[in-house]
Design a protein that fits this description.
Blueprint: H1 11-29, H2 31-39, E1 41-44, E2 50-53, H3 64-70, H4 99-112, H5 118-126, H6 146-149, H7 154-174, H8 176-184, H9 207-221, H10 227-243, H11 250-266, H12 268-271, H13 284-288, H14 292-299, H15 308-324, H16 330-362, H17 364-370, H18 379-387, E3 400-402, E4 407-409, H19 421-427, H20 433-446
Antiparallel strand pairs: 1-2, 3-4
């Protein structure tokens, strides 16, 4: 697996090259999807019907930093709206940052400055708050809008924002020792995590830890912070909880916006108290909350785009490998390990297929099971052969028989056993089951034609 190494002396410009490489790699991967989006492709739906489909880019699940890279924006500019960093705390939603706006800026810059001249090109891009990527992967993808695709994501924009900002406000308002002491006093409850040593010294907390602390934080700081601050933090927490619902109606979206407005009305109290270290509201995740209502109308509930599942894969793909390594050249070691693991997986699949082919030569029936094939039996032919005496040693009465349109094959080991006649008649809705069984038994006993039925006792 190739590991890129940049020889450009300026490390800041090396970051631009890394961003460009990321877009270039994505372009190589999504070429079939772009073609299908432009020309369409025949695909089968869950019912087996052929549909003419167009693969549009609906969403890209990522965190805030990567979203800025993929949308070609600098961190001083919102990647979904036209808001600048000084406007991230505004109590209203700014106009959306469309794809045409970004592409027109890139075209204007490319007309006067070559993208290969990195210092000059990056200097020209800074004026429009661009990150120096000259060819976004989404530029030729029909109907793709970055402000829709790179929308809010619960893990980073809700839980991680709480850890990075809300909890820090609480620590500065209450004090580190006091906050930890209050967490240690919490009574153990089934289903809730307990922080016996407090929360300020947690190392590498997971998304689950962020979620658990949110469940306690308002009750823990109550009485130790001014009422206005408590309302502000409570409304922001309430906004996150309501935004995680799986279904939205128009009234729910309106309620979300009113809750967020209440936070902005009370947020000044956080700066006016002991948390005077908060001198601004230049928080990208806070500005992104204003776009959640727009995202719900375009993409539906934000919880369907959570990164919980992909981030959990880091445990087996990255975290365990880093802990078991020597902390030297970690990226190269991880890539080599994953490459070896992939080769071993392919080798295992090849040997399994080879073993299945060997079993096919030894036992044809086992091969059908191993290869996933199912042999179709013609019971009409079998019934005809039985009636013709082809199998004279077959047990009687025959378990396979047929009419002109229907064939019957009775199993020797029934799945439902110890069932009374009354229960069978009720379950299978056979009202004449009693009389049919009497006819059958009389036919066997007297070896006569069962056309005349005796009276049912």
């Amino acid at each position: 697996m190739p590991i890129p190494q940049f020889v450009y002396p300026n490390k800041q410009l090396q970051g631009i090259l890394a961003d460009r490489l990321l877009h270039h790699v994505i372009v190589i991967i999504i070429v079939p999807l772009k073609k299908a989006a432009e020309y369409g492709h025949m695909m089968n739906d869950p019912f087996g019907n052929s549909k003419y489909c167009f693969t549009l880019l609906a969403a890209y699940v990522t965190d805030t930093l990567e979203a800025h890279v993929l949308s070609c924006m600098c961190s001083s500019m919102s990647h979904v709206t036209m808001a600048k960093s000084s406007q991230f705390g505004d109590p209203f939603c700014h106009p959306s940052h469309t794809a045409d706006t970004t592409l027109s800026c890139l075209a204007t810059i490319a007309a006067s400055t070559s993208p290969d001249n990195l210092p000059e090109y990056f200097k020209a891009c800074k004026g429009d708050h661009l990150n120096g990527v000259n060819a976004p992967f989404w530029q030729n993808w029909p109907l793709t809008e970055p402000y829709i695709v790179f929308g809010p994501e619960a893990l980073h924009h809700f839980h991680k924002m709480f850890w990075d900002h809300d909890l820090q406000w609480a620590i500065n308002l209450v004090g580190t020792m006091e906050l930890d002491f209050r967490f240690t006093l919490l009574q153990p409850l089934t289903g809730y995590h307990q922080f016996k040593e407090g929360v300020s010294a947690l190392r590498s907390p997971s998304g689950r830890d962020h979620h658990n602390i949110q469940c306690y934080i308002i009750g823990v700081i109550a009485g130790a912070v001014p009422w206005e601050c408590l309302i502000a933090m409570h409304t922001l927490n309430e906004f996150r909880y309501h935004a995680q619902t799986s279904h939205f109606e128009e009234g729910d979206v309106t309620r979300l916006q009113s809750i967020l407005k209440e936070f902005h009305d009370k947020k000044a109290s956080i700066i006016n108290t002991k948390a005077q270290w908060v001198m601004h509201w230049e928080i990208p995740k806070l500005e992104l909350l204003q776009s959640i209502a727009t995202s719900i109308h375009h993409q539906g509930a934000p919880m369907q785009w959570t990164a919980d599942y992909t981030e959990h894969m880091h445990v087996g793909i990255v975290k365990e490998l880093v802990c078991s390594g020597n902390k030297q050249n970690m990226y190269e070691q991880i890539c080599q390990y994953l490459d070896h693991q992939d080769k071993c997986s392919h080798f295992s699949i090849a040997t399994t297929i080879g073993q299945a082919e060997l079993d096919d030569n030894e036992d044809e029936d086992d091969a059908h099971i191993n290869s996933g094939k199912h042999q179709i039996v013609n019971y009409f032919t079998q019934a005809k052969q039985l009636e013709g005496g082809v199998f004279p040693s077959a047990p009687r009465p025959y378990r396979t028989f047929a009419t002109s349109r229907t064939a019957f094959h009775l199993g020797t080991d029934p799945t439902l056993t110890n069932m009374t006649i009354d229960d069978a008649a009720k379950i299978f809705k056979l009202d004449d089951l009693h009389s049919a069984i009497i006819d059958y038994l009389c036919c066997i006993q007297t070896n006569t034609n069962p056309s005349t039925r005796p009276t049912t006792p």
